[in-house]
Amino acid sequence: MNATRRYPRPTKEQLAAAVDKLLPDVIAPGLDVLFVGINPGLWSAATGWHFARPGNRFWPALHRGGFTPRQLHPSEQDELLTLGLGSTNMVARATARADELTAAELVAGAAELTGKVERYRPRWVAVVGVTAYRIGFARPKAGFGPQPEPLGGARLWVLPNPSGLNAHFTPETLGAAFAELRAAVSA
Known about the structure:
single chain
């Protein structure tokens, strides 16, 4: 399937109905990398696909970083498992914007994520969003890249948020950040 294939856009009604909806994880035991989003956006909750909003740069960054042989469309998310990859979120409930989440939700989500990592035992966990990571894990000075502390027995890495709203990172710099993680995973 071509990553540029067009899919019907969710309607305003479908997006409104997606508020607080949960998005199933794409996860299996023993993954090489479990990617952790902040929480599902309404577009993702409406479609059932992680990082589904057309402006989200997760899928292009994943490909540019060398994790996938081609750019996958969000509807192909289950192919991640065949590549030793998975996807989940720190907070399960869908919102229009991540800044609608409370600090308490991020802290609770971090605890739930830790349990999930202990249960599924990925080698690496990659959180995509430094601010959510800082708040959820009480690491106010954390930066991008490898983190000194493990998470539930997995090595931990923080990546930039691939949302189209994060203008600080271009598609090229996001791809480079994902490539750094890919090199560490392969080492």
